Structure formats: structure tokens, C-alpha cells
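Posting for a labmate who doesn't have an account.
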Amino acid sequence: MSHMKAFSNWSNFSSRSNKFNRFSGVRFGPILAAILVTLVLFYTTEFRRRSWSCATWATCLRGRPHTYNHWDDVDPDYKIDSFEKNLHDGTLLFHRQTVEYSSPEILILVLAQDADSWSKDYVSTRRNIYDFLDLLVSTNLDFTKVTLGLMTSSREEYDKAVKATERYPFARVQLYYREDQGPKIAFATRHKPQVQRQLRGRIASMRNYLMLRTLRDEQHLVWVDPDIVEISPDMVQTMMGHADRHSSVGIMTALCTKTRAHNYDKSAWALRRQVLDELTLEGEDEKKKKSKTAAIDFMGPIADDQMTAAVEQLSERRVYVGELIENTHDNDLLHVDSVGATILYIRANLVRQGITFPTSNVVGTTWSHEGWTGIESEGICFLASQLANGGGCFVLGGNHHVRHADISV
């Protein structure tokens, strides 16, 4: 009987437990779901409208914007002068200037064709202008000394930028809406040589337009691509410090990484300057002796019939940034012959002397035909090297780097 009673008690307890579990599931399920939805909404639709990322545990759990640390230096009653107007070439300009901070030292420039330009990381929502501004906050720059220039071919992105930049005390903001006048290029074909030539020529032209329209009396100019998601601490300050201390330094870049690529930007490189006696090439018949051809001296003129070979040999004789900066320190500077523009510092006086981004292959150009290399950022060092002083191109050593977004949308 005692066994039967114990079994009965257990059955009653089990029945009550099941009812409690069912009741708990009904009661707490919606609560847990509401919490989950609230968290998702919090990270994706916060008032800053920044992207939400779970690419790593740190980004997934942190998810908060960086803090702007220079509000104590800002006059709470600072005055704003702003206007919007159509320029003679049809470009729409928005201008905002802080009256009290009318002598900025740094010009930060960004080209963002449309909403896709901001890209995204793995396991994240799409980035936007708010994420880019948060990236600038992470540099710890005093925005009362910064001019921000942005150009886009999307009216929606232009309007968002007007609104988003209100929340920070930039000394000056210049925003341009300029309709895209070039042919559409499919993403799948963008890396073909002939398409790259066309694409980079257009990008160079747009960079020059934004740079020449926006630059006033700033000393330092920094290009940041819209799909850069991280800038290592004090990088911009280090670049400006090198420029202030060394008159020969005019252009600087840094290693650009990606989640699955240690050296992502292949436009930044140094040339192996030693001229080899000969280059060894494989013959069609492996049993025959390998044929040999003299190495081309890139420092001299290239004959028309050597241009194709020059392009091929150039790819073999480049030393990319990832290799250049091995075993270096944060204060080191290393010479380069070409730079990318994912992050790019230019001494402003170089621009005033006529140094811009070449819209065609400038190296080897003659009256009769275009050169064989050196378009856009890959040609700016070639132009700057022709100056008597101040046109040296360098890359930062040590741990300085930027990180590119994982996915180009």
C-alpha cells in the first residue's frame, strides 16, 4: 500500500509539474520573445540608425557607438551658418560652418556613390552614414578642427548626410549631390582590366572634383573609403605628426586588412628597384633549356613594344605593404611607389601645387598614346615625385591599419 501511495503522490506531483511547465511556457514564452525582439530593434533601429553586427562576440554584445570626447572644448552656444545651393555645373551643395571654429586643420573626404557604398560585415545589417561618422568619432579627432567633405550620386544619401552630420561640431561640412553621369558597370565584371581602366578613371575624376571643390586653408587631407569599418588608434594623428616633422613626407597610407585577407589593398606597393640581369621564363617544352629575357628598367622610358611585358613584370616586382611592414614599429615610415585610397593622407600643399589623381595611365604617356600604368591612386605618387620637395610617398609601419568591410554590397 505504501508503494501505491508513493506512486500516487509522484503521479500527482508529476501532473502538477507538467501543468506548471505548460503554464510557464505559455506565460514566459511571449516574454522571452518580446525581450528578443526588443534587443533586435534596439540594435537595428536605435536613434543613430547604425548597423547591427554579430560578426564577433565583441561586436554582437557591445554594439554601442563610440563616445565623442571633445564636447568640453565646444562652446555650448556655438553658432551655425548653413545654406544649400545649386552650382553652375548642376551639382547640389549643402554647406554648414561653425562660426567660432573657422580655421580647420584637417580635411576628411569620402566618396559614397549610394547606399551600397557603405557595405557590410559578415552576420550584420547594412552600414550607413551613421556608421561612418561613428568611425570618425573612433579616431578621437577634435571635430572643431575638421572639415568633412562628402559626395554622392544618391539624393537619399545626400539628405541622410545633411541630417546625420548635425549632431557633431564639425568646423565645416561640405556635402555634394552629383548625379552619376557614367555607364553602369556590373559588379561581376568590375575587375576586368578594360573595365578597371574605365572605372578608375571615373573615380579619379570624382575624387579630384570633391577634393578641389572642398579644400580651403586646411593643412592635412585624409581620404577614407566608405567601406572602411575600423581605423587603428591614433593613425590619423600619427600621419599628421610625420608630416609636421618631415618636410619630405607628402603622401601616406597604411595596411588595409579584411577578415580573410591580411593585405587587401593591392594598389599600395613598392618597386624592387634592383634591375635584374635577366628574368627566367618557362618554355613550352619543359625538356628544352629555359628561355631568358632581359628585365625592363622601370625607371627609364618603355618602348611601345615593351608595354605589355612591362605590365607583366611590374606585377612580379612589386612588394606589397603586408611584406614591407614586417618587423617594423608604429613610428616607422617605409617608402612606397604607389598607394591605395582606402586610407590616404595627402599634404594639402601638394594639391595646391597641382597634384591630383590621374584620370588615365600617366606613367609612360606620350603625345600619341596613353601610358601603361599609374591611374588614379596608383599614379599620384608618380606625379608627386616630380616635385622638388615634399612629394615622398610612404606607408606607416607597425600595427597601424584599417579594416575593410567583409562584403561589398
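Reply:
Got it, the C-alpha cells are right above this. Residues 2-44 form the longest helix (43 residues).
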